[in-house]
From TrEMBL:
Biased composition (Pro residues): 27-43
FBA domain ranges (all copies): 73-263
Keywords, in A-Z order: Cytoplasm
Species of provenance: Heterocephalus glaber
PANTHER family, alphabetized: F-BOX ONLY PROTEIN 50 (PTHR12125:SF1), F-BOX ONLY PROTEIN 6-LIKE PROTEIN (PTHR12125)
Stretches the record annotates as Disordered: 1-54
GO cellular component term, pick one: cytoplasm
Alphabetized SUPFAM superfamilies for the sequence: Galactose-binding domain-like
Gene Ontology MF terms in the entry: ubiquitin protein ligase activity
Subcellular location(s) of the protein: Cytoplasm
Leader peptide range in chain numbering: none
Name recorded for this polypeptide: F-box only protein 50
UniProt-listed Pfam families: FBA
Amino acid sequence: MEETKDPAAVGAGMEADRPESAQELPPSLPSPPPPPSPPPPATPETSELLQPEPSEAKARQLLLDEWGPLGESLLLPPRVTWTLLLQRRPLYRNLLHSPNPEGINIYQPAPPTRPTRQPLEALGNFRGWHIRTELLHQNLSWTVKQQCVNLLAEGLWEELLDDEQPDVTIMDWYEDSRLDQCVYELHVWLLAADRRTVIAQHHVAPRSPGRGPAGHWIQVSHVFRQYGPGVRFIHFLHKTKNRMESGGLRRTRVTDSSVSVQLRE
């Protein structure tokens, strides 16, 4: 990453699978909210549909070039083909929709912002996000954005998720807006097929480091490993702090959110 980011801030929240006292989360782990309906999986572009379908051998070679060598234990069930995997590419890609809805570049400080009375949805492309507001005290509020990823619909399969248990990597960047001591929270649940049973979870609410200029980006990331069989959905939810001022709402921005699945080396 470039020097415009604060090296001391990179990697905030990487260690904890459960809230710690310094993170000031409730002593009991929050339950996943009622799950939003997962959006349909991405469909191929028209130009891709016009391309001749590669052979199984060619599709396998293209994916091996992209993913690297696969373990000998990784076998495809009959219903999963290499050409289907090449089309869907369920591994090593961001499974979230609109990960950068406001088009903000993390390689530069967050651009200056003024209080606005426009709804968040009018400020970018938030397709796939379910958005709500939580009112707090002293003119503060949370913007809550969430997505629920259907892993099977994205091209993964039961045997891979249950037997191989590939790593699930979560990453996010939020603005150190200094609107409050804590301006960001991340909550992620790995859920079973009923979308309510929690198999693994991660929660973090970092405090502002108070170093460097306001507006620099802080990275939050976590990797789920050896989480157990049965995972079918990933519920991703983050919260950013707002403050109501005379000219409208001043917000904490967030960008480059990602959920991806990788084979363990």
